[in-house]
Amino acid sequence: MPSTNPTYNIASIPGDGIGPEVISAAITVLQKLASTLGTFAFRFDHLPWSSEQYKAHGRYIPDGGLEELRKYDAILFGSVGDPDVPDHISLTGLRLTVIRHLHHYANLRPTRLLRGCSSPLAALSANPSLLDWVIVRENSEGEYSGQGGRTHVGTPWEVATEVAIFTRHGVERIMRFAFETARERGRKKGKRGKLCVVTKSNAQIHGLVLWDEVAAVVSKDFPDVEWEKMLVDAMTVRMTLHPETLDTMVATNLHADILSDLAAALAGSIGIAPTSNLDPTRANPSMFEPIHGSAFEIVGKGVANPIGAIWTAAEMLRWLGEEEAADVLMKSMENVIEKGCRTVDLGGDARTEDVTSEICRDIESGL
Amino acid sequence: MPSTNPTYNIASIPGDGIGPEVISAAITVLQKLASTLGTFAFRFDHLPWSSEQYKAHGRYIPDGGLEELRKYDAILFGSVGDPDVPDHISLTGLRLTVIRHLHHYANLRPTRLLRGCSSPLAALSANPSLLDWVIVRENSEGEYSGQGGRTHVGTPWEVATEVAIFTRHGVERIMRFAFETARERGRKKGKRGKLCVVTKSNAQIHGLVLWDEVAAVVSKDFPDVEWEKMLVDAMTVRMTLHPETLDTMVATNLHADILSDLAAALAGSIGIAPTSNLDPTRANPSMFEPIHGSAFEIVGKGVANPIGAIWTAAEMLRWLGEEEAADVLMKSMENVIEKGCRTVDLGGDARTEDVTSEICRDIESGL
Ligand SMILES: CC(C)[C@H](C(=O)O)[C@@H](O)C(=O)O
Ligand SMILES: CC(C)[C@H](C(=O)O)[C@@H](O)C(=O)O
């Protein structure tokens, strides 16, 4: 009987700094998972798009590169950022260009307290399951539209503007995706979905009122999702004091940027959390990356924490529809952290390869 | 010898809901402090500007009211907000009108863990002194300028904008005030001042770059203040994980709105923190208010927590130059909380008047 197992074609963009080290760890673990489960396979193409390449050839992405990307099932991204290149150049030169070109209008940030990790919140030490969130970030417009400017520069009467753009199209598609995400999370738990729509419509009375209105319209198509609105300032309080009352949240580009950093800090996962840049229409491959940076100070020492990239790999599996494999991977990853095999940033003394091979061992032994 | 003790003329605007109950408590305590210390006196005029008045006469502020306000040394504000009046009407009808008219361009939010209060952060339970901050919020422009609008409303191609306006004048005056605040806090501790300038200039590249530039210019006049820049998203992480590394912070209207709510939550002071709306030039009287709302559900029951209004009164004393009296008041207030005389929101069963009279007793007994 010929096998009908899928083979996923992945573009890997390890990028700068510790990017290549952690992406290599993630790929090792993914291949182990594929060979152990035997129900799917991976093929990786490595694209050397990086600040090295920029410094040598004046650009991050070669001619035709963006079109090339379209043929993959997903993109696994390491990190971009180089001491010799201004941040805005490395950011727009590579990461933002891919995101814009492939219409990654949804950014997803799952946040929870992994077994073996600790939270700064006292309540969570006692009961880690109180925090299990996903933040949906609008990734294509809003406060990051780039519009605005400066007039009378340098004079005492200088005026600068930042113009946040919200289109009904843009708000509706992210809202719809957020409701779907909430519904899906509910379904898995055998409950109604739960969504909190974050705005600041009492002070930002044009674009954020549009958010409120669109939420009300879209919600009609999701009678199985309980939803509510909350102001972004009050949201920080609720996340801190009542984490158990939240599940899925959706917010603008800037608001969600702030809230997701706070979320990661509260879950003790700054440095190990993943983020997904998604085209929910699936017309284009989505891109998965750890939130940590290129961490040049530890490059080449073999001590980079691969957990961010491995959690990222689990998120990629989920998006590809391999839910079970993602669950296996998360379980093995948490087993290894819990038993104390941790890199220095998590208070241990394990090396990148120790953590990686322990996770591989755990995957094999669990099945 | 004729007395040269100052008498401070204060406009009290108790406002809505529990506003009158807590402002009355604050005034009782202030009068006790004045009579006990014997070095200054207070005279209060009560202005009945409230949603009641709005519902009866169609406006919050009577003809000539704003001009009247100018003759006072300070304004003590309770709360505004009424179940029968839309929030944006009560907010702009009273509070924002006063703030704009009297050029209260600086909003100050002191945050620390009071003795007897508890924080959700585990590290702070062990060592409350790790958190002692003041957040300076730009109170006159930025994301709250009200500019922007909506085009093609209700169509699939609708576009809404929120336009944040930053003037060099506006940024410079708040920056200068923030540096002065940091310097002053340093002076009291016998150290260099310490200021963190919060921006998001990697993504908001017009107005927030102006913030960065103005900070660099203004800092030259404050060689005795150590200062640094930080991105607003990373700031939430630092506040949560390393509170002891922060002292004075300055941020835009929206960024500081978010950060100050987070700060209050981390310090366990949501519901009891004060805020000051200041005209640092002192051309106009400044306005002092608790951050809590009108809390209609408990009106008239005698259980409202007066701590927010009393802490507010201490901030007013400081602004009037009565530093010692402010210190006495804070000490008595914390003594009373610490010994367990607390209203229900702080986990006790004391009534408003119990807390108030205990603080008065403590003031007397301490001197
Ligand atoms: C009510 C609201 C507009 C206000 C603000 O954002 O300024 C409030 O959150 C505050 O912080 O005083
Ligand atoms: C680097 C910066 C522009 C970026 C953002 O704000 O989007 C980062 O904070 C993030 O969250 O990925």
From TrEMBL, chains A, B:
<protein>
    <recommendedName>
        <fullName>D-malate dehydrogenase (decarboxylating)</fullName>
        <ecNumber>1.1.1.83</ecNumber>
    </recommendedName>
</protein>
<keyword id="KW-0464">Manganese</keyword>
<keyword id="KW-0560">Oxidoreductase</keyword>
<feature type="domain" description="Isopropylmalate dehydrogenase-like">
    <location>
        <begin position="9"/>
        <end position="359"/>
    </location>
</feature>
<dbReference type="GO" id="GO:0046553">
    <property type="term" value="F:D-malate dehydrogenase (decarboxylating) (NAD+) activity"/>
</dbReference>
<keyword id="KW-0479">Metal-binding</keyword>
<dbReference type="GO" id="GO:0000287">
    <property type="term" value="F:magnesium ion binding"/>
</dbReference>
<dbReference type="GO" id="GO:0051287">
    <property type="term" value="F:NAD binding"/>
</dbReference>
<keyword id="KW-0460">Magnesium</keyword>
<comment type="similarity">
    <text>Belongs to the isocitrate and isopropylmalate dehydrogenases family.</text>
</comment>
<keyword id="KW-0520">NAD</keyword>
